[in-house]
Design a protein that fits this description.
This protein has 121 residues and is of the alpha+beta class. It is 49% helix and 14% strand. It contains five helices and four strands; from the N terminus they run ββββααααα. It has a two-stranded antiparallel sheet. A two-stranded antiparallel sheet has the order 3-4.
Length: 121
């Protein structure tokens, strides 16, 4: 891992920048990731615009587009355990807190994470 996902494939950062992700608890290196720069952001934005304006997507029935968006939205739930473990190492939060964040983010209508708009009444 550590590469950028652009236009449906994993690719290295254009400038070759890399950054260690440090666990704040014990200062160990969790992983090393590619660091995107403006060139990478431009590539990703162009790819997203092409994908959303593409003939196949634009002419797809509303139900198919809805089903695809729902499928993609649910992907984090499939990997909640792995994402939560990684999230505990990156900012040093508890596993329970990280699982709650992942599940809330991935659940349609889920509450935003604390500090990101607050919980709904």
């Amino acid at each position: 891992m550590g590469e950028l996902y652009i236009r449906g494939e994993w690719t290295n950062a254009a400038a070759g920048g890399r950054r260690d992700v440090i666990n704040p608890y014990d200062a160990s290196v969790v992983t090393t990731v590619d660091e995107a720069d403006a060139t990478d952001v431009d590539r990703a934005v162009r790819a997203a615009r092409c994908a959303s304006a593409g003939e196949e997507w634009v002419s797809a029935p509303t139900r198919r587009r809805s089903d695809e968006l729902t499928r993609v939205h649910g992907l984090p739930l499939r990997d909640t355990g792995e994402i939560a473990r990684t999230e505990t190492l990156d900012p040093g939060k508890t596993l329970t807190e990280a699982r709650t964040d992942v599940e809330g983010m991935a659940t349609p209508g889920g509450d935003p994470a604390p500090g990101e708009g607050g919980a709904r009444p």
